[in-house]
């Protein structure tokens, strides 16, 4: 059943990469509306792509066709609406106070981009018509990871330390234990929220589990296989190399099995993967990101281990030297004495004129502020977005991005809205400049040549605004933290309410809900479905002989033997005292009978030993398949109950 993801409301501001954001700003500023370049750039960013697709589906929800790829989404919402949405990007904040996690965003983005290229290329090789959808789905398949890593930072750090490999089944299990939801379930909820169709969402939900993929209906199965093939190939390209750890072998096996499901030969697969890696390299190069770190499938086993790239290489962008920081750390202590007053601020000064930089910079420094310096608008933009200044003081006329434009660009972003922006204006141009500056979103202005006392007064007034914004932001953050914790709590409660305390199996309440869901699905898709009711034979005697405690111990062993004998798609529940219900979605009566036989013999094959107790326990099982005449799930249960009665009447320890 679908997991609750109450944190969905917090996923609107998931971070984008700085490189992508800067590129977006360039594209938006340009006179030409280069749609292809915009789509290429969005294909590097899961958070923004998903927001755009969601907008396309929301604003045009009455249209019959859903939008499921970035290009169509852009076409549907139009450039202007897309621009307004995309400029609202968020960035990763390296804020120690937020207890930043070990989650490597750059590595995540690199992998998502590569998976997207692989999905596009493999679907093309398999002859699919819509490689665009495949590309976008590859990009979005792991968006749940981004959400969990950002919403539950500390807890997610612990999870990736224990299990760094994204396709390992243990990762999803750990996530479910710690957060009550796996990244696939979170992705599924997010894609549903964005309006993607059932088949694609379902494929994302199951795509990390090969067995589950095989049990799916046609479309979900092929989409799931495509996603898992792409994930496996991405692991081979980005992993530590052949033989370095078990994940390589696991990925190689998965790639072989899944591409077979897609009808691709090994040669076709290798060709498509190589093509995808080349496209990935091209896209990353266009963005100015480091392109290497690709290990081709045909790499010599001996050299691929030796040449395994370092983690930095895998994550793409090399750490950049931070320019212009002229004092090492921020002081928030009041500045006293020596004619200085007020509080120290972290200020970014943007000016292309070295003289102004020197004069204003030293005035600010003398007043005790920390001063970062940018030499033009573009550098100023990048530094404002990444270095977390409190106040930006920017010149008016600069080559490239001018002061007014810098102001507008910053105000359009999430980060820029928090800042206090002061515009340096010259006395000569007077009121007009001041009015345009304030219109563009500046908080205040300072006239050149600057008077140190007025400058300091303006900075202090600006700081008061910043503190108010910071306080409201911190309240917002606390609120988000509470929502995140409540999300986990809600799932734990939900799970407890649907789990049987003795056997840890799903309980009757769950069974009924799930039965109704499966019934609906079977009616909609016209696929078969069966149920099995199993009842312990002569259980009363066990209780009589070994007491209630002994009876409980037997129920635990019986349920665990039943679980082991069931397949991953069978839904085994404790239905009542010593009665169990198994739902067999997509199974006809014959298949369910085989499943029931397996369970019967697993339970009755050997005695149950517990303390001094040593008893052989058997099951009787009744099987029923859904027929077109049945009007409700109750009729299906009734048929299984009748069959169980027949099994009991025929001597027990049997299926009927
Ligand atoms: P049959 O083969 O016809 O099913 O006979 P039976 O003895 O298994 O069936 P019956 O319905 O007569 O007895 C079931 C017993 O299971 C009665 C009830 O006290 C006991 N029981 C129900 N729930 C639990 C439980 O949680 N723990 C224990 N120890 N006993 C339970
Ligand atoms: Mg019984």
Tag the structure with descriptive keywords.
single chain, 656 residues, alpha/beta, Hypothetical protein af1432, Rossmann fold, Alpha-Beta Plaits, 3 domains, 5-stranded parallel beta sheet, 4-stranded antiparallel beta sheet, 28 helices, 58% helix, 9% strand, elongated, binds 3'-deoxy-guanosine-5'-triphosphate, binds magnesium ion
Characterization of this structure:
Helices cover about 60% and strands about 10% of the residues. With about 650 residues, it is of the alpha/beta class. It has 3 domains: about 10-285, Hypothetical protein af1432; about 345-470, Response regulator (Rossmann fold, 3-Layer(aba) Sandwich), CATH 3.40.50.2300; about 510-650, Alpha-Beta Plaits, CATH 3.30.70. The strands form 4 sheets. Strands 4-3-5-6-7 form a 5-stranded parallel sheet, sandwiched between helices. The protein has a 4-stranded antiparallel sheet with strand order 9-10-8-13, with helices on both faces. Strands 1-2 form a two-stranded parallel ribbon. Helix 3 packs across helix 4, helix 6 packs across helix 14 (about 220-240) and helix 8 (about 145-150) crosses helix 9. The model is unreliable at about 295-340 (pLDDT under 50). Magnesium ion binds next to strand 8. The site of 3'-deoxy-guanosine-5'-triphosphate has 15 residues, from strand 8 and helix 26.
């Amino acid at each position: 059943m679908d997991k609750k993801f109450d944190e969905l409301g917090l996923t609107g501001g998931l971070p984008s990469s700085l490189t992508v954001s800067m590129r977006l700003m360039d594209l938006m500023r340009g006179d030409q509306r280069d749609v292809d370049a915009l789509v290429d750039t969005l294909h590097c960013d899961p958070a923004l792509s998903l927001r755009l697709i969601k907008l396309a589906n929301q604003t045009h929800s009455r249209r019959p066709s859903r939008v499921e790829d970035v290009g169509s989404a852009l076409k549907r919402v139009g450039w202007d609406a897309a621009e307004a949405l995309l400029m609202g990007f968020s960035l990763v904040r390296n804020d120690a106070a937020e207890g930043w996690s070990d989650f490597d965003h750059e590595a995540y983005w690199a992998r998502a981009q590569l998976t997207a290229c692989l999905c596009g290329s493999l679907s093309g090789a398999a002859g699919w018509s819509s490689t665009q959808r495949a590309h976008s789905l590859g990009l979005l398949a792991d968006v749940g990871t981004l959400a969990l890593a950002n919403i539950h930072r500390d807890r997610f750090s612990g999870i990736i330390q224990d299990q760094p490999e994204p396709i390992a089944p243990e990762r999803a299990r750990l996530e479910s234990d710690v957060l009550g939801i796996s990244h696939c379930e979170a992705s599924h909820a997010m894609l549903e929220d964005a309006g993607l169709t059932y088949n694609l969402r379902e494929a994302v939900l199951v795509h990390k589990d090969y067995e589950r993929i095989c049990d799916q209906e046609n479309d979900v199965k092929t989409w799931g296989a495509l996603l898992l093939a792409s994930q496996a190939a991405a692991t081979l390209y980005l992993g530590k190399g052949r033989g370095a750890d078990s994940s390589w072998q696991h990925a190689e096996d998965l790639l072989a099995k899944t591409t077979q499901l897609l009808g691709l030969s090994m040669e076709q697969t290798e060709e498509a993967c190589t093509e995808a890696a080349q496209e990935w390299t091209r896209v990353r190069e266009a963005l100015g990101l480091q392109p290497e770190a690709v290990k081709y499938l045909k790499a010599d086993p001996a050299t691929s281990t030796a040449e395994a790239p370092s983690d930095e290489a895998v994550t793409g962008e090399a750490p950049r030297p931070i320019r212009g920081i002229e004092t090492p750390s921020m002081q928030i202590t009041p500045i006293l004495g020596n004619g200085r007053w007020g509080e120290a601020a972290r200020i970014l000064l943007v000016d292309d004129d070295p003289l102004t930089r020197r004069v204003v910079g030293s005035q600010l420094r003398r007043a005790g502020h920390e001063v970062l310096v940018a030499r033009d608008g573009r550098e100023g933009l990048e530094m404002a977005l990444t270095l977390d200044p409190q106040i930006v003081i920017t010149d008016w006329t600069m080559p490239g991005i001018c002061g007014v434009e810098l102001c507008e660009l910053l105000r359009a972003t999430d980060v820029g809205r928090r800042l206090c922006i002061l515009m340096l204006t010259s006395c000569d141009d007077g009121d007009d400049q001041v009015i345009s500056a304030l219109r563009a979103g500046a908080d205040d202005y300072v006239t050149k040549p600057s008077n140190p006392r007025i400058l300091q007064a303006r900075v202090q007034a600006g700081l008061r605004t910043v503190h108010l914004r910071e306080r409201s932001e911190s309240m917002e953050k606390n609120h988000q933290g509470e929502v995140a914790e409540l999300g986990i709590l809600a799932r734990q409660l939900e799970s407890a309410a649907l789990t049987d305390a003795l056997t840890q199996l799903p309980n009757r309440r769950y069974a009924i809900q799930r039965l109704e869901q499966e019934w609906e699905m079977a009616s909609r898709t016209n696929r078969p479905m069966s149920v099995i009711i199993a009842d312990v034979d002569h259980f009363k005697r066990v209780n009589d002989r070994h007491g209630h405690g002994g009876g409980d111990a037997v129920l635990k062993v019986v349920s665990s033997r039943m679980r082991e004998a069931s397949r991953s798609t069978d839904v085994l529940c404790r239905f009542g005292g010593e009665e169990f219900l198994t739902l067999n979605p997509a199974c006809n009566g014959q298949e369910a009978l085989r499943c029931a036989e397996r369970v019967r013999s697993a339970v009755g094959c050997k005695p149950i030993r517990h303390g001094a107790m040593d008893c052989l326990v058997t099951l009787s099982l009744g099987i029923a398949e859904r027929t077109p005449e049945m009007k409700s799930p109750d009729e299906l249960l009734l048929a299984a109950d009748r069959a169980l009665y027949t099994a009991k009447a025929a001597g027990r320890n049997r299926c009927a």
